[in-house]
Amino acid sequence: MGLFARKPISDLQPVEGAHSLRRALGAGDLIMLAIGAVIGAGIFSSIGTAAAGEIRPDGTIVRAAAGPALILSFVLLGFVCGLAALCYAELAAMIPQAGSAYAYSYATLGELVAWVIGWDLILEYAVGNIAVAVAWGGYFTSFMSGFGVTFPGWLTHGYRAVTLSSDPSVQTLLQTAPHIGGIPILLNVPAFAIVMLVTFVLLLGVRESSRANNIMVVVKLLVLGLFVVVGAIHIDTANYVPFAPNGWTGIHQGAAIVIFAYIGFDAISTAAEETKNPQRNLPIGILGGLAVCTLIYVIVGIVATGLVPYMELRAADPLAKALDVAGLKTAGWIVSFGAVVSITAVLLVFQYGQPRIFFAMARDGLLPAWAAKVSEKRRVPHITTWATGIVVALGALVADENEIYDLTNIGTLSAFAIVCIGVLVLRHTEPDRPRPFRVPFVWAVSLVGAFACFYTMLGLPRTAWERFGIWLVLGALVYAFYGYRNSQLRRNQR
């Protein structure tokens, strides 16, 4: 049997039983999950890097500033992700399995491609959540300062974040932090703590996790509404000039980093086996959630870049800083609180998604069987939930969020592109299969969607491509020495 053997779609239909996941989510829950996953670190953190650009301590320009044209970066990404979301919706309705793009690729492009996508998704969720946790730590520190509570800098900044920062006040931590054996102790303790707390919540069960997310989504929407209303009153139109300081280059490179702000709608598909009537509700959740989030992003981008000069947004907490610079310190403190809640919701949904990727891959024999184990009481993949939480928490202790954004984005965009191609392939190989949701103008949507994803990837720094290549090589070795030999599909067809 070849490397590209496809798994029959009939084998991808979940079987209900004592060891299956619990169906508890409706369309409304999925839309709230989408908002919870999508609106978070991207709008509260990476928006600042996209608008103001990124410069290393040695003066090297990593990416050009988009400036107020940041809103065009959001529109561009809304279009790109909209094409991918249509493809996700068709496949999710046909293949309502927890494995998301991994499962879809298994049915359309074969086992090897499925492995690559699964490996990409592991990168997206795990590494992405490290960046989210770091952003959470920044806003938490800002929020607590409103109460007069300050923490030592060496306990709120990871080693990698300090070494790559262009902020002189952050760079000084390399000298002022405690040293052991000549090495400065720089740890983001708040980021570590929130990851472990979220892990505990996820172990309580899917319904409990969904309720917690719904509460946090309401809070984040109220806070963003406050930012828009208060900020709009104080907009200075002079801040919109120059609108696009670096032309299309800035817009393109801005889009390449704020794709992080759109990551999350695909996490909805990982909830397929816990969704009631998934053929109907998954497309509603995916497309509805993405539409709401895109609209919010454009509005927030208009207000943020009109409130202060775009260069002022270069900060870990750009929205709160924008309000502070504009003299609206109370509103800035409230936004910091909202960001803490909002980013917690993102952590929750991302860490919800990753163990279910492990679950699906292990069930197919491509990863060890223990990764597919479900707790009898809560019916959640408890071993991988713990494992994911520990790895992410340790990474968040030392990581730099901008560096992580790039690696997450390239893994995500590659998965999006393959899903777009997979829809087209399946239309050709199984044209008569029932499709509860059909992509309109499938040839145009699929091909343009795949191209747009690849084009957006080109806006990422060279280092992101190099690290992504290393990750793929590592994945190839794992597949060669374990996945290929233990594939359940391969065993069944011998």
Short summary:
The protein is mainly alpha-helical. The chain is 65% helix and 2% strand. The protein has one domain: Up-down Bundle (Amino acid/polyamine transporter I).
What tags apply to this protein structure?
494 residues, two-stranded antiparallel sheet, globular, mainly alpha, Amino acid/polyamine transporter I, 65% helix
Characterize the structure shown.
- This protein is mostly helical.
- The protein has a single domain, classed as Amino acid/polyamine transporter I (Up-down Bundle).
- The protein contains 19 helices and four strands.
- It has a two-stranded antiparallel sheet with strand order 1-2.
- A hairpin with a 5-residue loop joins strand 1 and strand 2.
- The longest helix has 35 residues.
- The protein is globular and about 65 Å long.
- It starts with 26 loop residues before the first helix and ends with a helix.
- The relative contact order is 0.21.
Compile the SSE list and pairings:
Layout: H1 27-38, H2 41-52, E1 54-55, E2 61-63, H3 70-94, H4 101-108, H5 111-145, H6 159-164, H7 168-171, H8 173-176, E3 179-180, E4 183-184, H9 189-202, H10 206-233, H11 247-258, H12 278-307, H13 318-325, H14 329-363, H15 382-396, H16 401-429, H17 442-457, H18 462-486, H19 488-492
Antiparallel strand pairs: 1-2, 3-4
Helix pairs in contact: 1-10, 1-12, 1-14, 2-5, 2-11, 3-11, 3-12, 3-16, 3-17, 4-5, 4-16, 5-9, 5-14, 5-15, 5-16, 5-18, 9-14, 9-15, 10-12, 10-14, 13-14, 14-15, 16-17, 16-18
